[in-house]
Amino acid sequence: MISKMSRPPLLTLALISMLIGASINATRTNTPRLSILTDKPNYESLTPDFVSYNYTQTLDHFNYKPESNTTFQQRYIVNSKYWGGPITSSPIFVYMGAEVDITHQVLGVGFFPVLASRFHGLMVYIEHRYYGTSMPFGSEEEAYKDANSLGFFSSEQALADYAQIILHLKQDLSAENCPVIVVGGSYGGMLASWFRLKYPHMAYGALAASAPILYFKGLTPENGYDHVVSNDFNVSKSNI
Ligand SMILES: *[C@@H]1O[C@H](CO)[C@@H](O)[C@H](O)[C@H]1NC(C)=O
Ligand SMILES: *[C@@H]1O[C@H](CO)[C@@H](O)[C@H](O)[C@H]1NC(C)=O
Ligand SMILES: *[C@@H]1O[C@H](CO)[C@@H](O)[C@H](O)[C@H]1NC(C)=O
For the chain, which residues make up each domain, given as ranges? Predict the structure, then answer.
């Protein structure tokens, strides 16, 4: 039990040093960057290494009502350019899409290919439900229509979506032994850390970049974030 409990911090430390090592190394050796990073954010500008798929996703993961069984097409994008494959148990880096069309994030997350090339990782980007083409009810208009259609628009449902797609992918690629590292930024980073907490058997580690995971009223004294922002405003105001 004791050794089991001491595992997560060690893994976290290992991952952090791995990631720090990766970024230092990337800066030092100028690891090749993908040309897409400077291109316009639309799917057409992605290189052919990025392949888009749809997963038939369940609308509601949390009850057995017949209407919960409704499905929608959820988009995910895979790049296997650097992947070492299942035989070498090479890692799978999963980018947890946030509140935006996923193709924008594919283009924006420059360190993801750097990470993948260094660790022979598979790059997977999953679009968040209710964004981009991952619309329940067939269209954005229908999806955002009213409280009934918006009732399935939650972080809990999104995390369960990601779990389904990760399971599907691992099975499809015979990659059951490949460790999954989930990554996200801002709200997506919150999703990554919550995913590690809620589905620890699926994610070996999580990297949450610029993720305000404690940004909820009452979680920190004086509502820390608001305090820092107000204070910053006060200071700049007095400098004008
Ligand atoms: C995925 O589903 C969307 C929405 O239904 C559709 O517009 C798109 O063509 C599909 N893409 C693929 C690769 O099947
Ligand atoms: C939901 O879908 C599954 C798989 O397609 C099916 O086996 C099941 O009977 C469906 N349940 C309901 C309540 O429609
Ligand atoms: C900002 O300045 C006002 C007026 O000087 C003060 O009352 C307030 O406490 C300050 N807020 C912060 C967060 O420092």
Answer: 10-238
Task: Tell me the whole-structure pTM to 2 decimals.
Answer: 0.77
pLDDT band at 217 (very low <50, low <70, confident <90, very high): confident
Please state the atom number of ligand 1 nearest to the C-alpha of residue 53.
Answer: 13
| Contact indicator for 56, 71 with CB cutoff of 8 Å | yes
- By the 10 Å C-beta count (0-12 exposed, 13-18 middle, 19+ buried), 116 is classed as buried
Ligand 1 pocket, Cβ-based, cut-off 6 angstroms:
52, 54, 73, 75, 133
Q: Which of 198, 194, 218 is nearest to 208 (CA)?
A: 194
For 28-159, where are the E strands, in sequence order?
A: 50-58, 71-79, 92-96, 122-126
What tokens were used for 72? 């929608």
Q: What ligand is nearest to the CA atom of residue 51? A: 1
* Class of CATH domain 10-238: alpha beta
